[in-house]
Amino acid sequence: VCVFSGLPESIIAAACARSGQRVLHVDSRNYYGGNWASFSFSGLLSWIKENQQKTDIDDECEDWRKLILENEEVISLSKKDKTIQHIEDFCFGDQNSAEDVEEAGALPKLPVFGASGAEGVARESEKECPPVESALLEVESREPEKATGSEPASATEGNDAEVASEDESSHSTALGESTLELGKTEAAPSENSAQEPQKITYSQIVREGRRFNIDLVSKLLYSRGLLIDLLIKSNVSRYAEFKNATRILAFREGKVEQVPCSRADVFNSRQLTMVEKRMLMKFLTFCLDYEQHPDEYQDYANSTFSQFLSTRKLTPSLQHFILHSIAMVSETDCSTLEGLQATKKFLQCLGRYGNTPFLFPLYGQGEIPQCFCRLCAVFGGIYCLRHSVQCLVVDKESGRCKAIVDHFGQRISANYFIVEDSYLSESVCTNVCYRQISRAVLITDQSVLNTDSEQQVSILTVPPVDPGKPAVCIIELCSSTMTCMKGTYLVHLTCPSTKTAREDLEPVVQKLFNLNTEEETINEELGKPRVLWAVYFNMRDSSGIDKNSYDGLPSNVYVCSGPDSALGNDCAVKQAETIFQEMFPTEEFCPPPPNPEDIIYDEDEIAPEESGFGNLPETKPESSSEESSSRGSTAVKKEGNEE
Question: What distance in Å separates the CA atoms of residue 86 and residue 502, rounded to the nearest whole number?
Answer without folding.
Answer: 8
